[in-house]
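Researcher: We plan to redesign the surface later, but first we want a full-length starting point. Tokens attached.
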């Protein structure tokens, strides 16, 4: 059974994106058991697509897709994206596999680089052979510690190539360069969304996989101290999952987005301390705020310029942080 909050959200996505682009199409979702990947599987199946979800379950979770496994139009393949080979004919590939949590990817830097580099090679080849449309999940991290806020796609970034975050940042930058080369040399039909911080139901909260948003919610629901790193003045812009998913689907379906690199995110910039306060308010918890050491190379500000997304597909994120937080807290409180 799918959760009520997720079912409602999926209906909202379906009313914004035209189903006909995906109906009856064969779609591969790498990282299909992950946070964003599993939402894509739900929406694509709702549109009548035939979905193959690929995941090695290193950071994805089978519980995100358990409700789909009995559907005839859904297939789960447990495999590392770097090792995956297939003779199936795919119309679309959503290449979402990756290690997104800073604590987790810094613990597995080599695997993180391999997934972005070798995994993307494999997916570019598969898309080329199939003449498929490929969407590659890039990231705001390609901008590193950005000097221009809100950050437009034309900004080249300020990335430490040998720092603790480089395995993620440079891996994604390599994959972007690779897909640009494939589009130039082979005419690959691809899109590169740079996805900014996304949150909502299914965002992993445990151990190394936890992100600020999910950890804060879990800590607040348990009335434990909320662990803010540094003075909490660093900023992020949090986009609710349905807005990110809608952006990704619209970009994939739109011929105008062919070979474009586009920011997908929310433009409401908040400090991490403000986020902690908002989580306290939404959960009505008694947690205190505990200040811990700021990790090395933690970006000071992050906020997307989303004018290009709006211009290309006529859409921008709509869910306020207050409402998105309310939905996410409700979902987590039903799970814990
Ligand atoms: N952060 C924090 N407490 C935590 C986890 C993260 O204060 O328990 C901070 C982190 O240092 C960063 C921001 O929150 O400045 C967002 O962290 P997230 O885990 O979402 O990943 P990032 O946006 O850095 O990739």
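Model: Full-length starting sequence:
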């Amino acid at each position: 059974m799918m959760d009520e909050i997720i079912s409602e959200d999926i209906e909202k996505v379906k009313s914004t994106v035209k189903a006909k682009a995906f109906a009856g199409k064969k779609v591969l979702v790498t990282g299909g058991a992950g946070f964003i990947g599993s939402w894509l599987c739900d929406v694509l199946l709702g549109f009548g697509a035939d979905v193959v979800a690929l995941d090695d379950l290193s950071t994805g979770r089978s519980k995100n897709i358990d409700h789909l496994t009995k559907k005839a139009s859904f297939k789960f393949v447990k495999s590392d994206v770097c090792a995956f080979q297939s003779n199936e004919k795919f119309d679309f590939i959503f290449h979402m596999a990756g290690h997104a949590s800073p604590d987790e990817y810094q613990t597995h830097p080599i695997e993180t680089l391999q997934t972005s580099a070798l995994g993307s090679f494999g997916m570019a080849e598969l898309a080329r052979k199939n003449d498929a449309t490929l969407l590659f999940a890039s990231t705001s991290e390609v901008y590193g510690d950005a000097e221009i806020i809100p950050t437009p796609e034309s900004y080249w970034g300020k990335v430490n190539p040998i720092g603790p975050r480089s395995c993620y940042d440079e891996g994604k930058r390599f994959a972007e360069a690779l897909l640009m080369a494939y589009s130039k040399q082979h005419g690959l039909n691809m899109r590169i969304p740079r996805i900014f911080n996304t949150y909502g139901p299914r965002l992993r909260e445990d151990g190394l996989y936890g992100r600020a948003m999910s950890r804060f919610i879990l800590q607040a629901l348990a009335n434990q101290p909320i662990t803010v790193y540094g003075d909490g003045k660093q900023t992020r812009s949090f986009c609710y999952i349905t807005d990110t998913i809608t952006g990704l689907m619209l970009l994939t379906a739109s011929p105008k987005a062919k070979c474009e690199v586009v920011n997908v995110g929310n433009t409401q910039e908040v400090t991490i301390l403000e986020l902690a306060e908002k989580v306290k308010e939404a959960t009505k918890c008694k947690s205190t705020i505990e200040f811990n050491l700021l990790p090395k190379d933690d970006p000071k500000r992050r906020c997307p310029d989303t004018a290009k997304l709006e211009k290309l597909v006529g859409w921008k994120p709509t869910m306020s942080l207050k409402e998105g937080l309310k939905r996410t807290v409700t979902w987590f409180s039903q799970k814990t």
